[in-house]
Amino acid sequence: MTGSATDRILTLDTVRGVAVMGILLLNIIAFSMPMPAYFNPTAYGGSTGADLAVWLGNFILFDGKMRGLFSFLFGASTLLVIDRAVAKGDGPAKAHYARMVWLLVFGLIHLWLVWWGDILSHYALVGMIAYLFRNARVTTMIGLGIALLVVQLVVAGMIPMVILMAKASPDNLEMQAALDGMTIGFGVPPTDWIAEQVGLYRGGWLGIAIERFAENRFMPLFGLLQYGWETLAYMLFGMAALRTGMLAGQWDRRRYVKWATIGFGIALPVYTVYAVWLIARGFDLLAVATVAMPATVPVRPFAIIGWACLIILLMRPGGMLTTRIAAAGRMAFSNYLGTSLICTTLFYGFGLGWYGEMSRAEVYLVVLTVWALILLWSKPWLEHFAYGPLEWLWRSLSRGSIQPMRGGALNPAIANRTQ
Fold first, then answer.
1. Calpha distance 176→250 (Å, rounded)
2. In a 3-state reduction of DSSP, which class is residue 91?
3. Which residues of the chain have pLDDT under 50?
4. What is the structure's pLDDT at 2?
5. What pLDDT is stored for residue 234 in this prediction?
6. Reduced to 3 DSSP states, what percent helix, strand and coil does the chain have, rounded to the nearest 5?
7. Phi and psi of 63, rounded to 5°?
8. What letter does residue 348 receive in the DSSP assignment?
9. CA nearest 126: which of 150, 153, 145?
10. Residue 406: beta bridge partners?
11. Whose CA is closest to 302, among 65, 38, 136, 73?
């Protein structure tokens, strides 16, 4: 998979396209059901039969892996933009931080006005830190990433520790309040809380927005402390993967096969053991919190590497599906935010009001529909325009001038110019 420069960029876009589509496999639960259903199938949406099978497949194959893959790609793309700013003689710091500041603005608008599960504001803040390591050696990037994952493991391990301490202190009111918060996050909340959430999200936009802002106005800062360590690690791994040629498609096929085998060979058996244990424990609060937070931290990077290598092995430059997925990846910003607009319109009360009505298995009919829309619209758009609509807006704001929009980005000359 050596290829030309255009092919190598195609490789990057194809992996990004899979990631932005794959994220919806998990986010759809957060769009359509109360929050604890994301981690615990017994909280809402069904946990037997087809619903359990869907949870099992998602947990073993996709849970956290697509988000991590997207973080890999964000780090690689960030480094690519910095490198090209340096090559053009532009100020790399100015170019980078302008992009991150405007991404933070987009992310906060998305978080406060559209959907509580925003990742853009988090990426903007972590991306500001990642810039500091742009010139680091590959070994330094990887070593620091591993160290950050150790920190993340310690931070995440505090959650099951709090649950254990609270259960051991039934008379401590503060600990019991913390336990109630953990139950809302990872367990099976009281039915009145579930009913309140369903009623809220089946209501009007203003009520949802007020509640969302009250709950999430400081979420970007809390998120930075809670899981920013892991995100920064993934971005550094992505930078290293670009530097080594992995994400640029420069490795030979045997090397991709080797690392796909290593990645999946380590991750899938461990995730399968976790899944069996969760089912055997009946998805009790401590088990779910332990697996969802600390237990997966050391294993997830292997799955992410496996996915990246597998996608690159399977992609076919010039093939119909690869071309459409790569187009979706080139428009990842527009497709990510577009997915939020579509799904909130379908599930929230100001739209069709499907919130809480569909089972865990049924919501994947929506996923398939949204995937089809992404694949159908991205390629034709880029045949006529240089950027996706929100990519164009982000680029124009970051550069302080209106960027040329006409000219198909899938034209090789335009493609190289617009990366």
1. 54
2. coil
3. 1-8, 413-419
4. 32
5. 98
6. 75, 0, 25
7. -60, 115
8. S
9. 145
10. 385
11. 65
251: helix, strand or coil: coil
What pLDDT is recorded for position 409?
64
The Cα–Cα gap between 195 and 35 comes to 12
Tokens of 197: 């959430």
**Tokens, residue 328:** 């979706």
What burial class does residue 248 get, using C-beta atoms within 10 Å of its C-beta: 0-12 exposed, 13-18 middle, 19+ buried? buried
Alpha-carbon gap, residue 161 to 49, rounded angstroms: 32
179-225 per-position pLDDT tens digit: 999 999 999 999 999 999 999 999 999 999 999 999 999 999 999 99
Dihedral over Cα of 304, 308, 314, 319: its sign: positive
3-state secondary structure of 406: strand
Q: How far is CA 252 from CA 14, 30, 255, 288, in A?
A: 18, 39, 6, 40
Query: Using CA atoms, how far apart are residues 265 and 382, in angstroms rounded to an integer?
Result: 37
Alpha carbon separation from 72 to 28, 65, 223, 267, 369 (Å, rounded): 21, 10, 18, 17, 26
